């Protein structure tokens, strides 16, 4: 491993906000270098890091990417290896991929990604245990207690399989509407309001050490939706429901209003949970796009409980919003202005 990588690994371990890496990646050598690396990483004279993962590690944070099955492509894999310190499966750990028939689990895609992460010393985010979308057909027709049992069994099966290997799980994804009401999914209609806490309790039982997150989009400021999620998190914390983190997907545009972005993250952090930017991408190009990336990065760096940032893809080439060219690397894997803005924001001191 090049020097900068080992520095970033040890620097991340040095922070009390350190996310958990895939276990076999934690080497004795890394532990031995811990004290020296901590001094180096937090010294004002430390050299600026030249990768996103390395620069984020200076603040004890990860910088990750969503990964699709393109690891065989040389530029894809080398960009991922070099720049990112965390990975999440773009699709491979979702319900339709992991349990295509009831009780028949398929972990092939997820296992490949976890093995890659362990070989390369990267964190893994898990995404997503329960969601209204990308459910297998057999789930969509279930009612009442039958659906409740299927949900619990799915969480036990998937989170149990990856127990100890996942830094943070998106336990529940996208359960609220813009107006702050509960999304009228099959889960909500069949199981009633209690299904979200039920899912978190099942995840806690299956993998007690993973950080358990609620994840959503459209929560990029103080608004009716983020208000409702805030109330839920506050209530869960008060009642001891095991929720540790809130994911802000942050699917943005160059003209997104970010005037209350940081303030919104901060109010969640003030409830005692971690916050994470989980699916960042920004439609657009040039300075306008870079400016949004800068603001999001600065917000995470400024908030002690912000563990890290994940962009939703390695390259514009394979982005789910490819026509909007929303990522820091273009379709030829060249660094865009957005990349420079993120790296500079990570390399500047935390405020
Ligand atoms: C998207 C993937 O990027 C696509 O490949 C797939 O076809 C649909 O899902 N919010 C989420 C992610 O939580 O799982 C979604 O990912 C994007 C929106």
Automatic annotation (TrEMBL):
It comes from the Bacteria. Residues 1-48 form the signal peptide. The active site is at residue 279. Keywords: Carbohydrate metabolism, Glycosidase, Hydrolase, Polysaccharide degradation, Signal, Xylan degradation. Residues 14-23 have a biased composition (Basic residues). The keyword DNA-binding does not apply. Its EC number is 3.2.1.8. Belongs to the glycosyl hydrolase 10 (cellulase F) family. This is Beta-xylanase. It comes from Streptomyces olivaceiscleroticus.
């Amino acid at each position: 491993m090049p020097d900068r990588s080992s520095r970033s690994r040890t620097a991340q371990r040095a922070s009390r906000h350190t996310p958990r890496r895939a276990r076999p990646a934690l080497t004795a050598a890394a532990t031995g270098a811990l004290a020296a690396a901590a001094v180096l990483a937090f010294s004002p004279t430390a050299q600026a890091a030249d990768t996103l993962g390395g620069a984020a590690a200076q603040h004890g944070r990860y910088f990750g990417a969503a990964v699709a099955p393109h690891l065989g492509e040389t530029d894809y894999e080398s960009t991922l290896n070099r720049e990112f310190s965390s990975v999440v499966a773009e699709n491979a750990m979702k319900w339709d991929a992991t349990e295509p028939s009831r009780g028949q689990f398929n972990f092939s895609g997820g296992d490949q990604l976890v093995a890659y992460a362990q070989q390369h010393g990267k964190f893994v985010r898990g995404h997503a245990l329960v969601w209204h979308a990308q459910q297998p057909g057999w789930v969509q027709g279930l009612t009442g207690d039958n659906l409740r049992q299927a949900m619990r069994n799915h969480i036990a099966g998937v989170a149990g399989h990856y127990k100890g290997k996942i830094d943070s799980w998106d336990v529940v994804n996208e359960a609220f509407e813009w107006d702050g009401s509960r999304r009228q999914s099959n889960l909500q209609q069949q199981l009633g309001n209690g299904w979200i806490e039920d899912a978190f309790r099942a995840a806690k039982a299956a993998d007690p050490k993973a950080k358990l997150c609620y994840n959503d989009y459209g929560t990029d400021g103080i608004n009716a939706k983020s208000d409702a999620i805030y109330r839920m998190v506050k209530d869960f914390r008060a009642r001891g429901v095991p929720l540790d983190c809130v994911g802000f997907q942050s699917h943005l545009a160059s003209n997104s209003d970010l005037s209350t972005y940081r303030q919104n993250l901060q109010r969640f952090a003030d409830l005692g949970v971690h916050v994470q930017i989980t699916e960042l991408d920004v439609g657009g190009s040039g300075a306008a796009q870079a400016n949004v990336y800068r603001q999001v990065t600065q917000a995470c760096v400024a908030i002690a409980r912000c563990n890290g940032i994940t962009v939703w893809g390695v390259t514009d080439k394979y982005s789910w919003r490819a026509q909007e060219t929303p990522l820091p690397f273009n379709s030829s894997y060249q660094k865009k202005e957005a990349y420079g803005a993120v790296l500079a924001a990570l390399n500047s001191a935390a405020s």
